[in-house]
Amino acid sequence: MTESIQKRERIIAVLEQLPLTKEEESIASKVLERVRLSFEEGLYLYEHASFNFLSTLANYAKEKVSGDYVFFNINIHIEPTNYCVYNCKFCSYARKLGKGGGWDYSLEQIEQMASHYKDSSITEVHITGGVHPQHDVYYYAQMLRRIKQVLPDVHLKAFTAIELHYMFRKAGISVEEGLHILKDAGLTALPGGGAEILDDELSRQLHDKPGYKVWIDIHRKAHELGISSNATMLYGHIEKYEHRLIHMDRIRSLQDETGGFSAFIPLKFRNKNNPMSHVPEVSVIEDMRNYAVTRLFLDNVPHIKAYWVNIGKKNAQMSLAFGVDDLDGTIDDTTRIYSMAGAEEEHPRMTASEMVELIRSAHRTPVERDTVYNIRKVYS
Ligand code: V47
Ligand code: SF4
Questions:
Q1: What is the pTM for the complete model shown?
Q2: Atom 8 of ligand 2: nearest residue by CA position
Q3: Which residues approach ligand 2 with their CB closer than 6 A?
């Protein structure tokens, strides 16, 4: 019997032990037959499916893609500035230029930060920050070049579609020209941020950034130019399940066209120190259910990432039973976005050994990867 038939039989045996509704039965057969779930089925999963059912099925779907591997990388973040022209109500991080309380590191300072990791084993620098009113794409291309000068072998996963949109417009050039400039300067991949919920009506209540088509078009163009990307989803605030599904449906459709998304990253809304602090955070149970639904609904995105800095180490570990196969990176205390929003880790940092231990104690095989999911080391 092949391994995949064994897995199928095992899951059927487990599902047979559960008291399934007829809708759950039908969804389970679709997943087993690799038939895509509809919007209504996604909604059913969110609203009615049992916790056991979600965990079992999402785990099956995860193992189909990545077996018992769980990926992580050795990385740092650089957050060049927190001055920002936009006003996202969920943001605890941005400040207005001229009002103080923020930072805007010079290119020299950024090069120094990178130099600090010259002899380390990092393989990725993740760069995102506020949308600074004065910096254009040429400035950011210099930034990438200076980092590459000191860290020639790292991947640069840099700039959300929202930052890119602004820096290209400021320079008066097209998305294609802008991406070419950054790719020539060393850009490998785009982070998934700025997507929030890709629904313009809901977005108007959350932020004043460009509409969802801008985000989609920039990711489409990046994929066409061979730049892979991620997609995030900011959930657990004022959205309804329907909005999460509209968002994922848009990601799923673009992925059908391009195949350029590596990972989908649900980001839990954290409510400290921002204009939406009155909105309560959702429960950990809701977080786990959400990971499972994203794994089942996004049948064409290979990796579902639990960004541990966003939900904490313990919850990230638990998500490995709900379809997650990636925990992001070691970070080395280089990001402020989530500590400023009240997340568990005030100084987010994990050594590679800690990451390996966390994954092993969830009975999974830790795998160090690079930004584009080349395997660097399997800790078997
Ligand atoms: O788009 C801001 C989110 C994102 C809050 O691609 C918040 O590997 C929760 O892009 N509560 C930026 N979330 C982060 C980002 C990212 C992070 C990790 C991995 C990757 C990747 C990308 O942070 C923003 C926004 O959705 N965010 N404030 C908050 N209070
Ligand atoms: Fe600016 Fe990003 Fe904060 Fe929005 S989430 S205000 S774009 S830094």
A1: 0.97
A2: 130
A3: 84, 86, 88, 91, 93-94, 130-131, 162, 207
71 in helix, strand or coil? Answer: strand
C-alpha 77 – ligand 1 centre gap (Å): 12
378: CA distance to ligand 1 center in Å? Answer: 28
Identity of residue 245 = L
Where does CATH 3.20.20.70 sit in the chain?
A: 69-378
Exposure on the CB side of residue 269, measured as CA atoms within 13 A: 24
CA–CA gap between residue 199 and residue 191 (Å, rounded):
19
Nearest-CA residue for atom 10 of ligand 1: 193
Q: What is the pLDDT along the chain (380 residues), one digit of tens a residue?
A: 577 778 888 888 888 888 899 999 999 999 999 999 999 999 999 999 999 999 999 999 999 999 999 999 999 999 999 999 999 999 999 999 989 889 999 999 999 999 999 999 999 999 999 999 999 999 999 999 999 999 999 999 999 999 999 999 999 999 999 999 999 999 999 999 999 999 999 999 999 999 999 999 999 999 999 999 999 999 999 999 999 999 999 999 999 999 999 999 999 999 999 999 999 999 999 999 999 999 999 999 999 999 999 999 999 999 999 999 999 999 999 999 889 998 988 899 999 999 999 999 999 999 999 999 999 999 98
> What architecture does CATH give domain 69-378?
Alpha-Beta Barrel (3.20)
Taking each helix axis from N to C end, the angle separating 22-32 and 39-47, rounded to the nearest 10 degrees, works out to 120
